[in-house]
Amino acid sequence: MKMNAAQMKQLAKLAQIRSDAELKRFSAFRAHMDTVLAERRAVGEKLALSYSRHDAFSVAGARLASQESGRLAGARLHLDAEIARLTPGFDAARKKAAREFGRVEVLKTLATLDRISRRNTHDA
Fold this sequence. Notes:
GO terms for molecular function: hydrolase activity. The chain is an all-alpha fold. It contains 2 helices and no strands.
């Protein structure tokens, strides 16, 4: 099947629209994943700090520290589960965005090569 320049341009425009939509979808996914990863890092740092305390405290203080450590550990497990749940969709969105972007680049290159080829044929 041979395409003319107008069809190639129209196909490239359609591919650009699809690519933009996939890049926006991936960008939203990436922002959400970055937020969850930042939360996980923050919780991990707080948990590490809670274990590294060297000051003396009472039995009541030990209970509070234990409760806080338990809460932080639970939050970290929850965030780990959230990351595990998001990762397959994140990877798929990244691949699809890259594929759509690549498709646009290929179509633009083909259109450019076609234009050059037609110009060279016309000039000869």
